[in-house]
Each structure stands twice: as structure tokens, then as C-alpha cells.
Design brief:
This protein has about 400 residues and is α/β, with parallel strands linked by helices. The chain has 13 helices and twelve strands. It has a five-stranded mixed beta sheet with strand order 5-4-3-6-7.
């Protein structure tokens, strides 16, 4: 296989180049049937068949195993097509306050490695870029991968990120505001770098590997120490003109409420108040209570932990009802570490959502109801989504 052939096809700026369109579709979406490729590219089935034959001869496209999102025809299963795993890899990076997480996947969307490394709080962007370069070098060596096959890097951060890769407001790491992730990391890694908000990356992960596989339209609500969100329409995350799309945590739902770190009052994140509740519980119990402790305590019957989860579900359900009334999505994915509480969180949240949203489940037939479900990737969605960001970014490069 010519290892430079994939780069050439991804880098071809001629949209009419049929094989390039097919390669871009597979890089972005992962395994697809020929029918899906034709629908996504607008190409005729016969044209797709001929071009796929050429790509198979070049060993760029292979037939892969069926996935959850691969449709099956009656009587005979559809054979999904995928990019050859040997054609290249992408890296995803998630920047936390105290650790940096890394994931590697090949262009067939198979995840090869996940790992994390602790860093000193308050680390600089330049330090992060250098650490990532070193981690990537070591990880590729451990996995027996050729570093020259690295095609691109996706970076997930806390806070809105402009389409050009600049951090607009860094809620978790305030010194990063105004930093252009794509430029700083690109200069060190010498590869195309794509950056986005962690909730947007979480939505990509759920769509590519998780609970939203096969869905083109959905909303993600992330409940963690903070509150985030994302809107996906026609398979694309809506980022907004400045990168502030889907910031559900900063909807001001109580104008005279508590002051939020964003400068507004009564934001959904403040009303839910995970940080504040954890501090109150730590004081009452005389020990540090973490976000992981709450669900475990509640499942063991602790009334304080159960009350915290129920209060969170009440506020989250109200906020989600506003979103549901405006967007009326077919699917809502609830993500974040608080989803460890399972039905203790989901059932009251859905009940409050149904009470306050416009289109209620009882009023519409089943296919038209909004489904609310817990995501599958709460612990690693941001870093997996960063890999997805790179794969999709490469497919979208001019």
C-alpha cells in the first residue's frame, strides 16, 4: 500500500475528484455501506462502486465488520467499507487541570490506545504542547506504530473555542483565554491540529462510538463539576460564529440568582451547583466527598447523596426542557460523571423535562418522541471526541 496515497486524497482540493470524496466520507464517518457513501456524497451508486474498486486495488479502502450505524438490507446484510487501518492514525488530547489524556485511533476509527499523565496545576500551553509531543512519541513506540503515519491531532479544552482554534473563555484554566491551540500545538507537533470545546468533543464521541451512533440530530447535556452541552444537526456539531454554541450551562435561568464564573447570574451551572453541594456534603460528613462518592453513597441508601442527585435532576430537567422546547430533538444524551447515578438521576430528570417542555411524550406518537438516555462514554468521551475531531477535521480540510 502507498502510505502517501491517503494524504494525497485527503489533501485534494478538487471536490469533483470522486475517490477523494469517498475517502473524506469514510475518514469523517467511519465504516459506511456503499449506499450510505452514495447518499452522503451525492454520487451515483454506480460511480461509487467503480471508485471503491479503484480504492480497493490501492489498498486504501477495505471491507470491514458491520457496526451499529451500518444499515442492513432485508435478506442480505450490507457490507460496510472502511479506510485501511494501515493508512494512517490520529491522536486525541484532552486537557484537564491536573492531567492530560491521550487517545490514538487509526483511520478506520478503531481505538488503539488510551492513557493519561499527571501534570502540575496551572501548566502553560507551551508546556502542554511539549508534554503531548513526548507522550505521543513514547506511545507510538510502545504500540509499534510509525510516527510518520500520524495525520492529525485533535485537542479538547474546557471553554468555548473559535473555529480558528482560539480559546475564547477558559473556564477551567483561565490563563488559557486567548491562546490559539492550533498554532501552539501545530508548531510543536508539526501536524494539522484541530481544537474544540470538550462538550462538543463528547458529542462527537457519542456519535462515532457511543449511544448516538446512527443519529444525525441530537443534543448532549453534560453533567459534571460543571455543566456543558452540544447540539448536533445533520451530523455536524453546531459551534456558533465564535465557538459559543451549545453552552447550556451558561443559560441564565434565574436573573437574580448566584453569580457565575462566566460573569452572569443564575446560570444553569450555578443552579445545579455540583461544586457547592460537594463542599456542603464534605463539611457535613467531615471528609472530602468527590463526584464519584455521591452515586456510590446514594446507591447504598444515603439520604443526603440521594437528595443532591434529585436536586440536580430537578434543575437539569428544567434547563433541558428549555432546550427541548426550542430544538425539539429526537434524542438527548446525558453525559458526564454524574451519570454514574444511573436511573437515580435519569428518572427524575426525565419527569421534570416532561413536565416543562412543550412537546410531551403523551401527546405524540412514539417515533416523534424525544428519547433521553445516558451516554456510553462518560469517563473518556472528551478524549475520544478529540480523536474524532482530528478525523473529521482532516476530512474537511480544503
Amino acid at each position: 500500500m502507498n502510505e502517501n496515497a491517503l494524504r494525497s486524497l485527503l489533501g485534494n482540493a478538487t471536490s469533483a475528484f470522486v475517490t477523494s470524496q469517498i475517502v473524506r466520507a469514510l475518514c469523517e464517518r467511519g465504516p459506511l455501506s456503499a449506499a450510505q457513501v452514495a447518499r452522503l456524497t451525492g454520487l451515483a451508486r454506480s460511480t461509487v462502486s467503480t471508485a471503491v474498486g479503484e480504492l480497493k486495488l490501492l489498498e486504501i479502502v477495505i471491507e470491514g465488520p458491520a457496526t451499529n450505524s451500518t444499515p442492513r438490507a432485508i435478506g442480505r446484510p450490507a457490507t460496510p467499507l472502511t479506510l485501511n487501518p494501515r493508512a494512517g492514525t490520529c491522536v486525541g488530547v484532552h486537557l484537564n487541570q491536573q492531567d492530560i489524556r491521550l487517545a490514538i485511533a487509526d483511520v478506520s476509527h478503531s481505538v488503539i490506545l488510551e492513557k493519561s499523565i499527571e501534570v502540575e496545576p496551572g501548566y502553560s500551553p507551551q508546556c502542554a504542547a511539549a508534554v503531548v509531543r513526548d507522550i505521543v512519541t513514547v506511545a507510538y513506540g510502545v504500540c509499534g506504530l510509525d510516527i510518520s503515519a500520524l495525520l492529525g491531532v485533535g485537542v479538547s479544552v474546557c471553554g468555548p473555542v473559535s473555529p480558528g482554534g482560539m480559546v475564547q473563555r477558559a473556564n477551567g484554566m483561565p490563563t488559557w483565554a486567548g491562546v490559539n491551540i492550533s498554532q501552539i500545538f501545530g508548531a510543536v507537533l508539526e501536524k494539522p491540529v484541530f481544537a474544540d470545546n470538550e462538550s462538543n468533543c463528547s458529542a462527537l464521541a457519542e456519535m462515532m462510538w457511543g449511544a448516538a451512533a446512527g443519529y444525525e440530530d441530537f443534543v448532549l447535556l453534560k453533567l459534571d463539576l460543571g455543566v456543558g452541552g452540544a447540539i448536533v444537526r445533520n451530523g455536524k456539531v453546531i459551534t456558533g460564529v465564535a465557538g459559543g454554541g451549545g453552552e447550556f450551562g451558561h443559560m441564565s435561568i434565574e436573573p437574580n440568582g448566584g453569580l457565575c464564573r462566566c460573569g452572569n447570574r443564575g446560570c444553569l451551572e450555578v443552579q445545579i451547583g455540583v461544586d457547592r453541594s460537594l463542599q456542603e456534603m464534605s463539611r457535613l460528613y467531615g471528609r472530602i466527598i468527590t463526584i464519584y462518592d455521591v452515586s456510590a453513597m446514594a446507591s447504598q441508601g444515603d439520604v443526603g447523596a440521594r437528595r443532591m442527585i434529585e436536586d440536580m435532576a430537578e434543575q437539569a430537567g428544567r434547563g433541558l426542557a428549555l432546550i427541548g422546547t426550542i430544538i425539539n430533538p429526537p434524542l438527548v444524551i446525558v453525559s458526564g460523571r454524574m451519570t454514574r447515578a444511573g436511573d437515580m438521576l435519569l428518572k427524575p430528570l426525565v419527569a421534570v423535562y416532561e413536565k416543562h417542555t412543550l412537546m410531551k411524550a403523551r401527546d405524540v406518537p412514539s417515533p416523534m418522541r424525544t428519547r433521553v438516555m445516558i451516554g456510553k462514554l462518560a469517563e473518556n468521551d472528551a478524549v475520544l471526541g478529540a480523536v474524532g475531531l482530528a478525523l473529521r477535521g482532516l476530512a474537511a480540510l480544503p
